[in-house]
Queue: 3 jobs
Job 1
Amino acid sequence: MRTFRDDLTEMLRNPAFKKHYKEEKERLFLGYQIRQARRRRKLSQKDLAKMTGLTARQISQLETAEEAFGLATLLQVASALELALMLVPQNRVAYLNRSLKAGAVAIA
């Protein structure tokens, strides 16, 4: 019996599908991180919307990757959540994630 993983492995052999899959995965992860940061600060979507000038619906769309938002919006939300956006080389993302989970402290 074929599993979802079998089907996904097969579909990921297609370079166009693989590219779109990776982009969507990154958008979903970014939205998840924003939602987690908002929740850690005990803010509702409405609270964050007021802080950023966005609507609660836009915050929801950002958190669920329903819509693509520009850099200005991401910077606005990050600032309201007291976060910084940074670029990390792709080959260091897994290492950085493991380090952060282990309690590493970021130095600015």
Job 2
Amino acid sequence: MKKLFFCSILLCFGIGAFAQQPTVMKTAERLAMWKDSLNLTDAQMKQLWEIEKKYNPEFDTVKFEGIFDEIRAREQTRQTKIKEVLTDEQNARLTQMQINERKARRRMSSQTTQQE
């Protein structure tokens, strides 16, 4: 049932946002990972999807304009809204997941730099 709900959300937003497919797919993959890792409810998934839908398109536009302060502010707003949806335990796990992701990206970046 949960998978059916999530798939229907992906289908609805995926078709409607065809022009923004890379962003939508990246967001959908991240939310799918969060759903499993944080044991999110369907209501939480819907709220998180709405937050992503609201902030990500603007975020991508600003990125190309090179306004880094605005990017940072929007990302902080997005993170705050996400934390409001999650429980304390889910927030703690999400924070740890984000730390691990950053460490993995740094490791990959340093490995790539060393290979060059």
Job 3
Amino acid sequence: MFMEETKENLRRVQAPAILIDWLLAQGMLASTGTAESEPDLIEAHKWFNLAVVKGSVLAAQYRQEISKEMCLRDIAEAQCRARLWLSSEVEERQDLVA
């Protein structure tokens, strides 16, 4: 019971603005690609989703826009990747508390 409460409390902690900005920037990079890489909408959706979870309204708009270009399977994959990232983040914070 305590571990579940701890996880929930960690999820509710307001993210620093710099983290939200970094997540949003990762989404922008993935959605537009670079000179070395093509756009990756699955990764972009993942990063935007993470920024939304941390409180970014702008990321929600970007996520909605790229979702229009994605199939349901790709959106599900992006959501799975975001959950994995969040679970690893919670584990890292728990290590700091322990």
